Amino acid sequence: MKRFLKIILSITFMGVLLAGCSGLRVVESDVSAFSAWTSAPPGPNTAYRFERLPSQQVQAARQDLIEGSAIASLAKVGLVIDPAKARLAITITVNTRFAARTGYGYGYGSPNVFLSAGNFGSSVGFSFPLGGPFSGPFATPFPADPYYLREIRIQMRDLVDQKVVFETTALSDSARDDGYALLPAIIDAALLGFPQPPPGTRRIKVETN
């Protein structure tokens, strides 16, 4: 038994050590994207320029950071920033808000009876599952679980006919406010499948430092 425990502890320690050494963080986003190309979808090295809403023009410094975070992600799908030769006008909107999850109850499942026996005797008792929704006279509120919710919207307009030809939204949350650090990973997720993304909402994971 002691040898078995030592093996388990060694494996656990190595897993924690490798995770710490990798320094990578997985960012999960729920992505919904739509395309409506009126001509052939853009190929490699298609030029674009950024376009700002009036509210974004007022917050120019903030928008500079947002657009700067998107340039590398746009390059990964074959788009290059060149306002003079732009075929596409791209608008990026980022909304961040603080929220908290709350719930009530003891959890999933139902109470159980347990029996146990070993070298030091035997026991009998009851167990109650924890963690999920439950309704009834004994329901109690779970503590609030604070988190930051980020929504990124990217809209592309074809400058030839002035029609919106691509739209994508990525929704992601984290336990702490990371400022602009996670934007590239969320934008990568938002652009996955460009220029003709699959239908429906997708859960996309992107690794980042």
Element layout with pairings:
Blueprint: H1 2-22, E1 25-35, E2 46-50, H2 54-58, H3 60-76, E3 79-81, E4 88-101, E5 112-118, E6 121-127, E7 145-158, E8 163-174, H4 183-191, E9 202-208
Parallel strand pairs: 2-3, 2-4
Antiparallel strand pairs: 1-8, 1-9, 4-7, 5-6, 7-8
Mean pLDDT: 78
Largest sheet: 7 strands, mixed
User: What order do the SSEs take from the amino end to the carboxyl end, as H and E?
Assistant: HEEHHEEEEEEHE
Give the N-terminus to C-terminus distance in angstroms. 39 Å
Describe the structure.
With 209 residues, the chain is an alpha+beta fold. It folds into 2 domains: 24-102 and 144-208, Double Stranded RNA Binding Domain; 103-143, no CATH class. It contains 4 helices and 9 strands; from the N terminus they run αββααββββββαβ. The chain has helices at residues 2-22, 54-58, 60-76, 183-191; strands at residues 25-35, 46-50, 79-81, 88-101, 112-118, 121-127, 145-158, 163-174, 202-208. The strands form 2 sheets. A 7-stranded mixed sheet has the order 3-2-4-7-8-1-9, with helices on one face. Strands 5-6 form a two-stranded antiparallel ribbon. The protein is globular. The two termini are 39 Å apart. The model is unreliable at 4-9, 11-21 and 104-135 (pLDDT under 50).
